[in-house]
Amino acid sequence: MTDQEILALIDKAVDQFDGNLDELESAVGMLMLGRHYGWRVILLIHSPNTIREYLKILGLKNLREVLPEVGVLAHRSTAWRLVDGTKNFWKVVRGQLSGIRSPRVDR
Q1: What is the DSSP string of the chain?
Q2: 101 domain-assigned
Q3: Which of 16, 37, 66, 87 is most exposed by smallest CB count within 10 Å?
Q4: Phi and psi for 84 in degrees, rounded to 5?
């Protein structure tokens, strides 16, 4: 999705939003960070329930339709470095492996 299309999506979500602005802000922030980190890193940061809530706010069905799978900054994510190249990604996302989810990034 192009930057213009993402901005249009955000504008539409803002125009149609009804609720607490902090939730809208978080959903938009997730989308903007996802442009750089990719949807796989986003799934390692947030719980499935949070992702569903943000998708609803943004009017999306899934992150794959708007974000790259692995963004140019994914290598900075601590959680991504732990699962990259392994078969454990979906186990971590589902909560079957603990201690890996992390919002931490390094330079």
Answers
A1: --HHHHHHHHHHHHHH--S-HHHHHHHHHHHHHHHHH-HHHHHHHS-HHHHHHHHHHHT-S-GGGTS-SS-TTGGGBHHHHHHTTSS-HHHHHHTSS-S-----B--
A2: no
A3: 87
A4: -60, 130
In this structure, what token pair is assigned to residue 77? 């994510």
Q: Are 31 and 21 in contact (CB under 8 A)?
A: no
- Token pair recorded at residue 33: 């960070």
Which domain range does residue 57 map to? 3-73
Residue 22 lies in a domain: yes
Whether residue 88 is contained in a domain is answered as: no
60-83 pLDDT, tens digit each: 999 999 999 999 999 999 999 999
